[in-house]
Write a structure and sequence with these properties.
Elements (H helix, E strand, L loop, with lengths): L1 E4 L7 H13 L7 H9 L9 E7 L2 E9 L12 E7 L8 H15 L4 E6 L2 H5 L4 E5 L6 E6 L3
Antiparallel strand pairs: 1-2, 2-3, 3-4, 5-7, 6-7
Length: about 150
């Protein structure tokens, strides 16, 4: 497995946007694959947020994660956010998601960030990687958690 910045393989943006839309945004008619692709294309430099990563198994893309400025309009004071961690079903259970989280946290630390927030329906996965639970987000059963002291 290797991890790379998505901007290095721009032809994959529609595929990655499709994964994210199907997994997280299918219920929201105002969020389209096209809109998600536009957001992913904003991640154009390795030294500033937003960042988007893709994991490969051989030459095949199998997973993605992003680091964004904010992912909760109700809490603009919390930043940055790990967002849209997605692993293709056939690639799950092999540590790819954990590797992407670590890559994202390392990138945040390299940018001087000391904590990263996220909302998730699977807090136990992130707790195993060192995250702490902060409380409910209030939408779709999500829980707000954060990684502290990452730098």
């Amino acid at each position: 497995m290797r991890v790379a910045h998505l901007f290095g393989t721009p032809d994959l943006v529609p595929t990655i946007a499709g994964w994210i839309h199907a997994e997280f945004w299918g219920h929201a008619p105002d969020m389209t694959v096209h809109a998600l692709a536009a957001r992913l294309r904003e991640a154009q430099q390795p030294d500033r947020i937003p960042l988007a990563f893709v994991a490969f198994d051989g030459e095949a893309p199998v997973a993605t994660v992003s680091l964004v400025e904010n992912d909760d309009e109700a809490r603009p004071d919390l930043r940055p956010w790990l967002a849209a961690l997605y692993v293709q079903p056939a690639a799950r259970g092999r540590g790819i998601g954990a590797a992407l989280v670590r890559e994202c946290l390392a990138a945040a630390a390299a940018l001087g960030e000391t904590r990263v927030h996220l909302g998730t329906a699977t807090p136990d996965f992130y707790a195993r990687l060192g995250a702490e639970m902060l409380g409910p987000v209030g939408v779709r059963g999500l829980v707000r958690i954060r990684f502290s002291n990452i730098g």
